[in-house]
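Narrative progress, year one. The postdoctoral researcher (J.K.) led the effort to move from monomer predictions toward full complexes, under supervision of the PI. The following entry was the first complex the group processed end to end, covering 435 residues in total.
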Amino acid sequence: MVEFQDLHRLPTFEDLSRKELEAVAPLCEKRRIAKGVTLFQEDRQATRLYVLDAGRIVILMNGAHGQRAMVYTVQPGESFSWSALVPPRRYTASALAIESSDVYEIDGRKLSRLFKREPALGYKIMCRVSQLVSKRLRHTRLQLLNIHDWQTAEQAQAV
Amino acid sequence: MSDAAGSAVDYLPELSTLAAVRPLTAAESLFHLDMPHRALGHHPGQFVQVSLPGIGEAPISIASSPTRPAGFDLCIRRAGNVTEAIHRLKPGAKIGIRGPFGRGVPIDDCMGRNVVIIAGGLGLAPLRSLIQYITDHRSRFKAVTILIGARTPETLLFPDEYGAWRSRDIKVEVTVDVSKETWLGHVGVITNLISRIDVDPDTTVSIVCGPPIMYRFVLRKLARRNLQNDHIYLSLERRMKCGMGKCGHCQINGLYVCLEGPVFRYDRIAHLPEAL
Ligand SMILES: Cc1cc2nc3c(=O)[nH]c(=O)nc-3n(C[C@H](O)[C@H](O)[C@H](O)COP(=O)(O)OP(=O)(O)OC[C@H]3O[C@@H](n4cnc5c(N)ncnc54)[C@H](O)[C@@H]3O)c2cc1C
Ligand code: FES
């Protein structure tokens, strides 16, 4: 069983009061994911929000010819699969454990219903989720800017 | 190191011999050169002017440590006239060398401290000189961490050397922008790796080399880890001709990168609008 103290140390929930954490804790389950297991698949129905406690999870996207590209390593303490909280509730990417990992799994629909009952709690968590989405967007922009290996267009063509 | 005045000798290329070529990636190879009559006598972070008669000259960082005997390494990306021509050379060919030039990494400021080396793409080439220096004098440095970022695993430089660096009690973390599923390292931008390491602001110095866009974000992240500007060194790249403070090609706000850099302490350039 997940205790409210377990959740309090995770950035996604650190703004919540004890009472609010106690309301969220029963919706959470802690799971060990074996190395090599795909947690969820792109385009499938998004049912669960995850928070990585320990280990390494990578986010993958389907390429044009069926190949999958790794695009992001989730950091411990980070939540992922926020698609489970917002319509149309479809995963926008896949998640794979490349090391044995511990995650908190939260039922997306139950959490949304809790938000409706306790909007202040919902607001706090959605603020954190927005920060996560914004971080990912910034991250993607840096990848587009070629942050690690800037070359002029001419240089890239010369190679 | 050349002085500001530049002696006549500094203008004359010395002919070195290309001893070996090791392809690294599709665009970069490692060239091992021997000087005929002398050791190069460089410091990590310095560069040489490399020339081929009838083609031209280009500044290239020295990619090996002065502690390694017999010759020196240059890691060269095919980018234009000179570098393309060098890539076509076979062992035994002659290459003109002027230098070493510029100010490298102040090793004394790194000794007895924790060192965080941050390299993006080709930025690992000049930093390899420092890394080899550290591995050869490991006890003089405290905790050493190397963060490396590249576009893909295929464009990573020197991956076959990371094992040897790790065996010298150096933490090496690697991230790529995007990868196939066979990659077991991190995926994402290098700033994510900075969040994961221990940084004691009082005892840590960081040396950063990479594309200009990387500096902005890495500096922001280092500031968030409370590292002061005078504990950060950056290697700047500017178009160069003479390499010795004569032609003015490399100037930023009156500063000669070829003489006073390419490695600068960040607090000394932070106020210069054209620096980053
Ligand atoms: C201190 C220092 C250290 C360096 N270390 C390395 C290193 O270790 N390895 C390495 O591979 N490279 C290094 N470089 C970069 C290298 O010097 C350049 O890529 C150099 O231009 C290559 O010469 P080239 O004749 O092959 O290419 P160039 O013919 O100079 O062309 C290179 C590219 O730059 C463009 N270009 C040329 N001149 C100009 C100009 N005036 N304005 C705008 N664009 C121009 C060209 O169109 C082309 O795309 C370093 C540069 C500096 C300043
Ligand atoms: S390259 Fe000529 S002054 Fe610096």
